[in-house]
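SEQUENCE-TO-STRUCTURE ENTRY
===========================
What this section holds: a protein sequence and its matching fold, both as plain text.
Question of interest: how does this chain fold, as expressed in backbone structure tokens?
***
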Amino acid sequence: MPFIRPTLTELRNQVTQDIASGFPGADPLLRFSNLNIAGVAQANLANLHYGYIDWIAKQAVPFTATDEYLEGWAALKGIYRQAATSASGTVTFKGTPGRVIPQGAGLMRGDGIPYSTSAAVLVGAGGKADVQAVADPDLTGQTGAFGNAVVGTSMTLAQAIEGVQASGIVSAAFTGGSDIESNDSLRSRMLLRYQTPPRGGARDDYVTWAKEVPGVTRAWSVANVLGIGSVVVYIMLDRSQAAHGGFPQGINGAATEEPRGMPATGDQLRVADHILPLQPVTAFVNVAGPVANPVNFMIQNLPVAARPMVAGAIADVFLRDGAPGKSVPLAHIWSAISSISGVDSFVILAPLGTITNPLGALPVVGTITYIQTI
């Protein structure tokens, strides 16, 4: 039976009763009496002690521990918090042909976020220079998603360069930036390791290894897709690649040192190179990004006020239940929409049954059509 912690009011009442029983004839309830003040102080201290004991109890077990204590429990299973990563992309500047934008040159986004060029670039004959840049990490080392930027974002040189216009435009989106892993995400990976310990390359092992790579939030493994002994690992990066719907940016393939297949690029290569030294030596591993499988909906008699929240509710179901080759029960969609405030009754006219999902595809919200008949 769980211990029920007394509230501060209950503690004050208990102390008052103890004082009254210990001093017959005294009245510890008087507002400014010494006995009342001492009793309140004693109750407050006891309440702090209970709070501290509660905190100790939470840190004493892995499924409720937080912060550095959670990291300690996770480290016992070889699970470590994913670090923040910086976004990278391309900025185009105009200038005089032959001028050089040096490596390490500072750039500034319109909202004051700093970037640095990662390689020196020569302004070409067409008067343009496409320079690779990376967002400067913040001083705390905990955030990185702030550096993501879409195509068309304005960038300005922090220091003037002769022959180069100070203002440039993002020509290839800045992606890959993600914040330090949250406690909930770390705890989820840690508990998975407690529940499914490594088994020398079992299906769950590949999922665990993929999720160790910064930015990877979901992963699935499928055996023998490319032949006997092959493993395809599908990955998603819901935070760092939010601008692309969470889908990894790169080319599907194997690790750099895997001679049996074409090497991957981008996010897929980072995961493949991480898995290679951990996997069984005989396995042929390819890392891939699932393709989007848009699912269109037709919903009847849904209140107008609730419609803006429907797409998010469906997306949450796909986030929880969606997996390459796995079907999503339509009942879960009904339940998610029904939980929206103000929704009493409605009818899903399409799709009519379980949402099928081909291998290698992941369901995403397509077009939602609303029909009102009442």
Summary: Residues 34-59 form the longest helix (26 residues). Residues 292 and 362 are 5 Å apart (CA to CA).
